[in-house]
Amino acid sequence: MRAGAAIARRRGYDGRVNAVDERLLTLGLAGLGLAHELNTPLTTLGLRLELLTEQVRAGHLDAEALANQLDAARAQAQRMGTLIQRFRRFARGEPGLPEVVGVETLLEDTLQLVRPALAEAAATSLTWTGLPGVEVKVDRLLTVQALSCLVFNASDLLGEGRATTVHISAELDGSGDAVRIQVADDGPGFADPEAAVRLGWSSKGGRGMGVGLTFAAELAARMGGRLVLENRAQGGAQVTLVVPRLDPAGSADG
């Protein structure tokens, strides 16, 4: 599915999108998405370098520890360069660079990406439940970016002034053919789950770009999956990324 047509349908158009409009919509989403998604690794890199500077000035790092910290910072910078290349493919309507990856690896990559930024929000705790031994075939980098976006959106939706929790988990659907990666919170929930996925909606109000959930939904569609937004019966919101499971023979089901 081309990005422009998908966005048009989500925004209520009749699906008759000409080639120029579709291309502009795709480029617009890719450009906004890149700006949105670079914010996460930039924040992580900035926090890492700030901590590193404090440790060096305090004399708490020997040469080996310093080298390890610099390696980690360089890896983050390389990640941003790779992310730019992925979004160039996204803008051309290409499906990304899928690879076979374990679901638990996706969750661990996501946690590694979001934890430094969430550590700044002292009232927000992050928990997770894995799904050992199950694999999917996805663009690992973009999928982790999409999942990190879901975690940050959940954090942004949480009420202030009280301890709150974001929980990320994975499970098989009833048929066993698809993996459901869920990000749930105990905040106020969505005022309108259907509207939240539309381009322009933001959990940050005027501070946000309103592209994160749209990007996640489009990425899910390109992987043969979908994004499901709902409010939890016990309170809070839940966003589920559903993608086909890779069967033991090495081909994606469904």
Task: Name the CATH class of the largest domain.
Answer: Alpha Beta
Broad structural category: alpha+beta
Rg measurement, Å: 19 Å
Number of helices: 7
Count up the domains: 2
Question: Could you characterize what this model shows?
Answer:
This protein has 254 residues and is α+β, with helices and mostly antiparallel strands. Helix 2 (19-57) packs antiparallel against helix 3 and helix 4 (103-118) packs across helix 5 (140-157). The strands form two sheets. Strands 2-4-5-7-6 form a five-stranded mixed beta sheet. Helix content is 49%, strand content 18%. Strand 4 and strand 5 (178-185) form a beta hairpin. The radius of gyration is 19 Å and the shape is globular. It has seven helices and seven strands. The longest helix has 39 residues, at 19-57. It folds into two domains: 3-91; 99-244, Heat Shock Protein 90 (2-Layer Sandwich), CATH 3.30.565.
Q: How are the elements arranged and paired?
A:
Layout: H1 3-10, H2 19-57, H3 63-91, E1 99-102, H4 103-118, E2 124-129, E3 135-138, H5 140-157, E4 164-172, E5 178-185, H6 193-196, H7 212-222, E6 226-231, E7 237-244
Parallel strand pairs: 2-4
Antiparallel strand pairs: 1-3, 4-5, 5-7, 6-7
